[in-house]
Amino acid sequence: MAEKIRSTSRGLDTPKETRKRFLNRPRPNPDRFGSATENFARFMGTPQFLLYMTVFCILWLCWNAFGPENLRFDSAALGFTALTLMLSLQASYAAHLLLLAQNRQDDRDRVSLRQDRQRAERNLSDTEYLTREIAELRIAIREVATRDYVRSELRSVLEELLETTDGQELTLQKRKTRKTSENTVALPKIQPAGRKPFR
Description:
The protein is an all-alpha fold and 199 residues long. The chain has a domain at 29-143. Helices cover 73% and strands 0% of the residues. It is built from five helices and no strands. The radius of gyration is 55 Å and the shape is elongated. The mean pLDDT is 79.
């Protein structure tokens, strides 16, 4: 019995079934409708629309004031009631169309502001990363030998090498002179044949 109650009862987590209707609800495409309202709102803000409305109202008034009486459709005695109603209807629809266009513009501005904010945050994070990297490079460069330091070290090493080579050359020259002097003393003097020794 409890199982039957559970199966028939529905919890709050299960959605309701949609009721079937005799007529389908009209669902226009919001993007297409919004773009049409924006185009009409832009057209209403142009001088062409004002010129067309002015010409239309003048023709309406002239026809109903000076035209044949049997063909007039708006009485001038009643103050052109049909024209007044038509202009008020047009103004009421125009107000709503302008509001729709303004709402779409606000949505676009909101999206662009969000994108600008995200772009600014990305730029800020990139600049912070670059500043950290530059600071680390500066710290690392302090420990790296510079060109002047390497030149001075090479110059000092070269001077030491020259000093040691000069000393070695001097010692070698002294040794050579000693050897040559010992060799000349030790060698006997040979007289050429046929000559008497000089006393």
